[in-house]
Structure formats: C-alpha cells, structure tokens
Specification:
mainly alpha; 0% strand; globular
Length: 145
C-alpha cells in the first residue's frame, strides 16, 4: 500500500472520528434542552391524569400506580412524535391531524392497559377523559409559554 493511500485512509478515519465527536458535542446541548422539556411534559401529564383518575373514583394505590406507569410508557413517545412532526408536516392542519392520530393511539393503549389491569370499571372513559384533560392542559401551557 502506497504512502499516499495510507495517508488518505488515515485522514478519512480521523475525520470520521472527529465527526463523531462533533456530533456528540452537538448532541449535548440538544439533550440538555430536551430532557427537561420531556420531564415537564411527563410530570404535567401524570398530575393531570391522576387528578382525573381520582375524580372518576380510582382510589386504589396500585391502580393509581398503573395510571402513572401508563403515562411513563406513552407520554415520552407521544411527545417525541409530536415534536418531530413540526419539522415534517407542511401546515397546521396536517400537524393537528397527526397529533389527533397520536392521541387516539395513546387513548387506545392506555384504555387497554386500564382494562387488562382492571384499573377502573370504565377503563375507556378514564382513558378518554384523562387524555382529553392532559392534552388540553398541554395545549394551554404551550400557548402560554
């Protein structure tokens, strides 16, 4: 192998390593920004949905813990997808159509969890009302910030 070829390979390898470091350095501010946002969304959602669950008669601590677990499962995914949609969709109508679709999936998943785990006598009502409340509060907070 010629010295020139070795040099080219060495430069490419080190450039890839440098690019990898640049990507990691670039990613750090993004993570520092996004983690508190995700945490805020999750805490707000858990709070609102626990209030709704308690107001609908869910008092068992284990059932309330399942409500929290359902939020931990679904909320970060929903927030990630709806956040990513901002850069993908062409207009507000498409964005809100996608948000509604994501929320309908979340309602279905949480309703199924509540039904299987017997969180409530009316798992689908709990899921629908809790998600309507948390989405409404989320939109309100988003418009105020």
């Amino acid at each position: 192998m010629s010295v020139q070829l070795k040099t080219i390979l060495w430069l490419k390898t080190n450039k890839q390593k440098a690019n990898g470091m640049d990507d990691q350095i670039f990613l750090l501010p993004y993570l520092i920004t996004i983690i508190p946002i995700f945490a805020f969304c999750l805490i707000l959602t858990i709070t609102v949905e626990l209030i709704v669950a308690k107001s609908l008669g869910v008092t068992d601590n284990q059932a309330l813990l399942i409500v929290v677990a359902a939020q931990v499962l679904t909320n970060p995914i929903a927030v990630f997808i709806t956040s990513a949609l901002v850069d993908v969709v062409a207009n507000d109508v498409q964005y809100w159509a996608c948000v509604i679709t994501v929320e309908l999936v979340v309602i279905a998943v949480e309703g199924l969890i509540y039904k299987v785990k017997r969180v409530s006598n009316t798992p689908w009502t709990l899921s629908i009302l809790a998600n309507l409340a948390s989405v409404s509060v989320g939109i309100l907070v988003q418009t105020l910030i």
